[in-house]
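Regression test case RT-17, inverse folding.

Input:
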């Protein structure tokens, strides 16, 4: 019996060690990891809020302000004198804002068209034999006010099934608004100084 005592003691010691290691190796409920297919809990930290899509429409005031800051590549002058003779608004909305503005002008002894939209500036050749009278923006009704002043005649009763397209032109003191709806179009003219309707179909 004494001969077997060390062996029995060794076996018992080994069993105790195995049981202890099994207890220590068991993960606590707080340390349990979810199965791979378990959805992760929502993140309650800071979330990036996506900004709404930028409108393609630009007000005349914004385009004209950008025009004052525009510096053509042909000159290194810090100040460039610009004279505007012609303005065209493309695809104008009900508030007088356009998806693009075109200015017929002269700057640094060069005459040309400058087109502005959300993509920036583009230069377009402008071959005109005679320049019209310069436009003084301080003496005209701006497009936004022109549209609000003549809302009834400009917007009218458009058909919801046929979209309208409006293009606005300013030259020689006259606003000309071309409204195209399907295959038909109408042209309205306004005094650029007062905003009053001059002609309508």
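Golden output:
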């Amino acid at each position: 019996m004494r001969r077997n005592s060390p062996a029995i003691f060794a076996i018992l010691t080994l069993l105790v060690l195995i049981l202890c290691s099994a207890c220590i190796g068991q993960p606590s409920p707080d340390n349990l990891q979810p199965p791979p297919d378990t959805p992760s809990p929502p993140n309650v930290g800071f979330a990036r809020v996506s900004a709404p899509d930028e409108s393609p429409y630009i007000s005349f005031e914004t385009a004209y302000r950008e025009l004052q800051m525009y510096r053509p590549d042909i000159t290194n002058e810090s100040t460039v004198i610009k004279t505007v003779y012609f303005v065209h608004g493309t695809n104008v909305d009900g508030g007088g804002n356009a998806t693009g503005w075109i200015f017929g002008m002269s700057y640094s002894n060069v005459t040309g068209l400058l087109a502005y939209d959300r993509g920036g500036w583009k230069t377009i050749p402008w071959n005109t034999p005679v320049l019209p009278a310069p436009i003084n923006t301080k003496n005209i009704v701006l497009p936004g006010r022109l549209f609000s002043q003549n809302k009834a005649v400009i917007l009218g009763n458009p058909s919801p099934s046929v979209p309208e397209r409006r293009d606005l032109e300013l030259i020689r003191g006259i606003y000309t608004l071309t409204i195209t709806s399907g295959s038909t179009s109408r042209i309205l003219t306004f005094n650029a100084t007062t905003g009053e309707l001059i002609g309508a179909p």
